[in-house]
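Example record for the data management plan.
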Amino acid sequence: MSKSESTESAQPIERDQALTLDVLRRLVGNDWARLPGKTLVVLSRDSEGNLYSPFSTYSIGRYAPVHGLTGEVYPLESELARDPELRRLFPEIPDTAVAALVLYPLD
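Corresponding structural encoding:
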């Protein structure tokens, strides 16, 4: 099922929108619930579908756009408070940074 399709009971997912955790939960719980557990999760490098890599890991951080929708990810304030070296690496976090679930490809 593509990201623009939905189950009968769910609202359609609009293409070309940022995916929120609410939508991801709905997809996992409804649209993708019947997929086999060994189904590989693959990430595309960009929206045009150039190059792909399996999903590897994730982190919780803060995201701020720099150029359009392309941006940077920053540590959480709690991580910066615990780690002085991390604070030195990230002396300033943009005011536009918002909480984000960051997914990383295997390669």
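Summary line stored alongside the record: Residues 56 and 106 are 5 Å apart (CA to CA).
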